[in-house]
Design brief:
The protein is an all-alpha fold. It has helices at 3-33, 42-52, 61-73, 75-84, 86-106, 112-141, 159-186, 190-221, 223-229, 232-254, 260-279, 290-293, 297-313, 315-327, 335-339, and strands spanning 282-284, 288-289. The protein has a two-stranded antiparallel ribbon with strand order 1-2. A hairpin with a 3-residue loop joins strand 1 and strand 2. It is globular, with a radius of gyration of 21 Å. The termini are far apart.
């Protein structure tokens, strides 16, 4: 494999990692949005706050890694995508900022009206951001953008883009529900476990149906993508995703939910990697290959070295953080902690 091929594989894995890690957070925001009024949604939102608080910032590390790899390893690809689809990507970036601000400011805000405003900003941004990111991915997958493409709505608002955006929303909702159902067991909240398990099963079914419809749409709207997903490595990964769907459903129905998390991650990761495999050897089908978009050979070699260093130093730390979180060793501040904020410990 060439240096450009290695970096392309790293980029695809980073996109899959962000889909799974960041997607779980977006999904939690989706369920925050649909939890209902203040009284009805109090318990689900309590769990969402406690489950997300320890790790929500670190999940954006994967997005930063994706952007660095794109910009450094494939500058023409980066320029093409961000020039032709600047609007959905700008809206997604605004959504990421507003979502983080809403989540961070909701809990310490004392007034109920302020909490509702920040909560609404967090929840709505969690719905719109994955849609715009998915729509941009659909523009790439359908080959509607390329070097010199004018930034028109058709580049990202087309049948493939719309269904990619919907898949992103439903997929993140699925991840959020699966992880929250498992977190409910950790917090000894059987009512919330049942609540989120039902939603996980519903969104799992919706994701499967929507995925099948997206394949049908791709047959007419993105033939290169359709061919790649129904042949070779793309087909193998689609089969893996189907099997992971069945396993996830079985685990949700038969167990407390802990093992349903890795099964759902396999489902989402294999779906994303199947998309990348279906496009080979293109970064943009029919418009830009991996070799054509690659940066200077010396840059690629240094980027590989930096990636290895990051894999040795950063990724184990992130994995350890996730492990601490799933074990319940990281607990967020409670309202009582916030009320005591700044008060010294006795004898301090």
């Amino acid at each position: 494999m060439t240096a450009a091929g290695v970096i392309a594989a790293v980029l695809l894995l980073a996109v899959a990692a962000y889909t799974c890690a960041g997607g779980t957070d977006y999904g939690a925001g989706f369920w925050d949005l649909t939890a209902g009024g203040a009284e009805r949604g109090k318990r689900p939102r309590w769990l969402i706050d406690h489950a997300m608080a320890p790790v929500w910032e670190v999940n954006n590390v994967w997005l930063i890694f994706v952007l660095v790899i794109m910009w450094t390893g494939f500058p023409e690809f980066f320029q093409t995508v961000f020039s032709a689809m600047w609007l959905p990507l700008a809206l997604a970036a605004i959504g990421i900022v507003l979502r983080g601000a809403g989540f961070a400011l909701r809990k310490p805000t004392r007034k109920i009206a302020g909490r509702r405003v920040y909560g609404a900003v967090f929840a709505v941004s969690s719905l719109l951001t994955p849609f715009f990111l998915g729509a941009a991915a659909g523009g790439i997958a359908s080959g509607r953008v390329g070097p010199g493409t004018e930034p028109t709505a058709h580049a990202w608002f087309n049948p493939t883009s719309v269904f990619f955006g919907l898949l992103a929303v439903v997929g993140t909702a699925l991840l959020g529900a699966v992880f929250l159902a498992a977190d409910a067991v950790r917090y000894e909240a059987p009512d919330l476990h049942a609540y989120f398990r039902r939603r996980a099963l519903a969104t799992l079914g919706a994701f499967a149906v929507l995925g099948a419809v997206t394949l049908i749409v791709a047959h007419a709207d993105a033939p290169h993508l359709w061919h790649g997903l129904t042949h070779g490595a793309g087909l193998v990964l689609i089969i893996v995703a189907v099997l992971a769907t069945v396993v996830t459903a079985w685990l949700l129905l038969r167990t407390s939910g802990a093992w349903s998390r890795p099964a759902a991650v396999v489902l989402m990761a294999s779906s994303v990697i199947a998309w990348g495999a279906a496009q080979r050897p293109y970064l943009i089908p029919g418009r830009l290959t991996v070799a054509e978009a690659a940066g200077a050979p010396s840059t690629l070699h240094w980027l590989i070295i930096v990636t290895v260093v990051a894999a040795v130093l950063v990724f184990p730390a992130v994995a350890f953080l996730y492990r601490l979180d799933t074990r319940g060793d990281l607990e967020p501040l409670t309202d009582a902690d916030l009320r005591r904020g700044g008060d010294p410990e006795p004898g301090a």
